[in-house]
Design goal:
alpha/beta, Leucine Aminopeptidase, subunit E, domain 1, 8-stranded mixed sheet, 5-stranded mixed sheet, 11 helices, 24% helix, 25% strand
């Protein structure tokens, strides 16, 4: 049944190949966005129920309509030779499909991880790959077979299938199989993102791989990899060199570095304000200027504005982060492209316990009602850039602390969306200058003066990552930190418990717990 496979460029020149990786054994894994009717290959995988009746799901319905009734007839004939149980696979011809064969799998439904659905699906994937290799086919196409009626979460399916394919590549002796295609419908953005995330993780685990094919990639467009250890890729268009790299933007030696920030960003040291961006000097970074832009703005417009400004100032090089797409902590919940979200934590989770333990000093007086994680992509990105700048400026990395901040219920939505800024100054205290105050001791923030109880007696306290840096004594009325050196106004000290930017990690709602009759009898806060 083997045939010589035409080149990828010949068959799929109009197909949207999002990305591709190649295993050490030479097996190509391609993420493809295309309609199933506009794609072709040696083998395609389809899901069927135990009755082997086609047409129950959207995938088998499309395949049956295109292939014709003989596809169902041959599949039914297979029941005389094999048992139709979950985990079984059946191979038929492709008939009028643009595939030479179809592998029909009886797949399990997702059981929330409580049963064996993961293991069964993994075994099915291995069976499919083994069958393709045994029958000397060169390629196999996996649509999103488990994410529809079978309800496998798309991120979990992407992780599972990529893991199994890579494992098969490393353990099997490949003779015929050359390509594995992960086929995503053009409208399925969630699956695309799930697979792109998994491909990125694979590249991080395999940093010495010398190529990652992207959309429109072909030999001659991309130059040689200049630094495979950090995954650097270059291409030239005319006199302009484009370089994509995984690395630390604060270590780049260029004329301009771009920082993605938020609407609350306010810097009086800026060279001059602009409608869409702020420009500051490079300071301790290896650049002439920093252009600060709003990460939530349209990326295309923002990039055009940046390039126009660089051209106007006659700068020859600029380094941009992945604006609006920066890395977020691995433990964060999928935000589904939201700007920010609030994630409830639950008893038994390690993060819940870690935060709860930080309130051990006041646990006798208060009961924790709920703990939430505040996820704000733009605040996180801005905070990370500021942290790296402070680490470089101060010559050490001991610039961050986990501190507490008590507030009232009305301030919570504003803080969650925009972070802490000087609009809160003087609201509760300003003894050491005008700024946002944070406490080392949870009991301090639990004071009614700071975490003002609502009508039900509930309080709101944040556990916050704070950049304290080096510090000095504050004074009433102080608006900005004093200089470290009176001769150098660029070197500013931080005032203890004040920051330029902060990320609210956890919001905690607390309710008073009445003291026992044996206590002092005083009313608890």
């Amino acid at each position: 049944m083997a045939r010589k496979q035409d080149s990828w460029e010949d068959i799929h020149s109009d197909t949207d190949v999002l990305t591709s990786i190649q295993t050490e054994e030479g097996l190509k894994l391609l993420l493809v966005r295309a309609d199933i009717l506009h794609f072709s290959g040696d083998v395609i995988v389809n899901t069927v129920p135990r009755t082997l009746q086609l047409g129950g799901g959207p995938l088998s319905r499309v395949l049956l309509k295109k292939a014709g009734p003989n596809l169902q007839k041959e599949l039914k004939a297979k029941t005389q030779k094999a048992e139709e149980k979950v985990g079984s696979i059946f191979v038929t011809s492709g008939y009028d499909l643009d595939y030479r064969a179809v592998i029909h799998v009886v797949a399990p439904g997702w059981d929330e991880g409580a049963g064996s659905s993961w293991q069964i699906m993994a075994k099915i994937i291995r069976k499919c790959l083994k069958t393709v290799e045994e029958q000397s086919f060169a390629s196999i196409t996996f649509p999103m077979i488990a994410t529809g009626n079978l309800r496998f979460p798309k991120a979990i399916f992407a992780e599972l299938i990529l893991s199994e394919v890579c494992s098969f590549s490393s353990s099997a002796q490949l003779n015929s199989l050359q390509e594995v295609h992960f086929l995503v419908h053009p409208s399925d953005d969630e699956s695309c993102q799930a697979f792109l995330d998994e491909f990125t993780k694979w590249l991080k685990r395999n940093p010495n791989k010398d190529r990652c094919l992207m959309v429109g990639d072909n030999q001659g467009i991309f130059g040689t990899v200049s630094n495979p250890a950090v995954s650097t890729y270059e291409m030239k268009i005319g006199a302009i060199t484009f370089r994509v790299a995984i690395g630390d933007i604060t270590k780049e030696k260029v004329d301009v570095i771009v920082n993605s920030t938020t609407k609350t960003f306010n810097l009086k040291l800026a060279a001059r304000p602009h409608r869409d961006f702020i420009i500051t000097q490079g300071g301790y970074l290896k650049c002439k200027i920093i252009i600060h832009v709003l990460g939530e703005n349209n990326v295309r417009d923002t990039t055009s504005t940046i390039l126009e400004e660089c051209e106007r100032r006659k700068h020859s090089s600029v380094c941009l982060p992945a604006i609006g797409t920066g890395e977020i902590p691995d433990h964060w919940t999928d935000m589904n492209q939201q700007l920010f979200c609030v994630i409830p934590l639950h008893r038994g989770q390690s993060e819940y316990t870690a935060v709860k333990d930080k309130f051990s000093q006041i646990s006798h007086s208060f009961k924790i009602r709920k703990i939430e994680r505040i996820q704000n992509r733009f605040l996180w990105q801005s905070y990370q850039v500021k942290k790296k700048q402070m680490d470089i400026k101060n010559g050490h990395t001991n610039n961050e602390k986990l501190l507490f901040h008590g507030t009232d219920a009305a301030s919570v939505p504003q803080i969650n969306q925009h972070g802490f800024n000087r609009s809160f100054a003087g609201k509760n205290a300003a003894c050491y200058g005008r700024g946002t105050y944070f406490a080392v001791d949870a009991s301090y923030s639990a004071n009614d003066k700071y975490s003002i109880p609502d009508s039900k007696g509930r309080k709101r306290i944040y556990v916050v990552r704070v950049l304290t840096g080096d510090y000095t004594h504050g004074q009433t009325g102080m608006l900005t930190p004093p200089s470290k050196n009176s001769d150098n106004t660029k070197e500013l000290l931080s005032v203890r418990l004040t920051i330029h930017q902060a990320l609210a990690v956890n919001s905690i709602t607390k309710v008073p717990v009445p003291r026992s009759p044996s206590s002092s009898g005083e009313e608890s806060h």
